[in-house]
Amino acid sequence: QVELVESGGGSVQAGGSLRLSCATSKYTYDTYCLGWFRQAPGKEREGVAAIATGGANIRYAASVKGRFTISRDNEKNTVYLQMNSLRPEDTAMYYCAACNSGGTFDYWGQGTQVTVSS
């Protein structure tokens, strides 16, 4: 069973920072690529960032490139999303997800809320 547990969301003012964490099992961490998605009320889910199992292949949405950084911690089986220079439009529920070798995100966490006020 693939379990993804997000934490680190909260409320910040524009320009602030937050770091989201997604804790997994060692099996999940070693087997699946991991990514972050977000969904704001009334909007479609958007891919934010993804990182391959080895950590060498990383992708970002254009809207967050240069502000957000995704990383993996091999000792803690955890993937992080460091979010800097936050904007009100970053407000959303953020989800951690795991993708199979075909690139399909099959497994999802419960989400953590990020709210950025102006």
Determine the structural class based on helices, strands and strand pairing.
Answer: mainly beta
Number of helices: 1
Bulk shape:
globular
Question: Rg from C-alpha positions?
Answer: 13 Å
Largest β sheet strand count, sense and barrel closure? 7 strands, mixed
Oligomeric state of the chains in view: single chain
Quote the average pLDDT: 95
H-E string: EEEHEEEEEEEE
Tally of extended strands?
A: 11
Estimated share of beta-strand residues? over 45%
Please give the share of residues in helix: under 10%
Distance between the ends: 40 Å
- Which stretches of 5+ consecutive residues score pLDDT under 50? none
Can you give a write-up of this model?
With 118 residues, the chain is mostly beta strands. Strands 2, 4, 5, 6, 9, 10 and 11 form a 7-stranded mixed beta sheet that branches. Helix content is 5%, strand content 50%. It starts with a strand and ends with a strand. It is built from 1 helix and 11 strands.
Could you provide a short overview of the structure?
Helices cover 5% and strands 50% of the residues.
What key phrases describe this protein's structure?
118 residues, mainly beta, 7-stranded mixed β-sheet, 4-stranded antiparallel β-sheet, 1 helix, globular
Layout of secondary structure:
Blueprint: E1 5-7, E2 10-13, E3 18-23, H1 26-31, E4 33-39, E5 46-51, E6 58-60, E7 68-73, E8 78-83, E9 92-99, E10 105-108, E11 112-117
Parallel strand pairs: 2-11
Antiparallel strand pairs: 1-3, 3-8, 4-5, 4-9, 5-6, 7-8, 9-10, 9-11
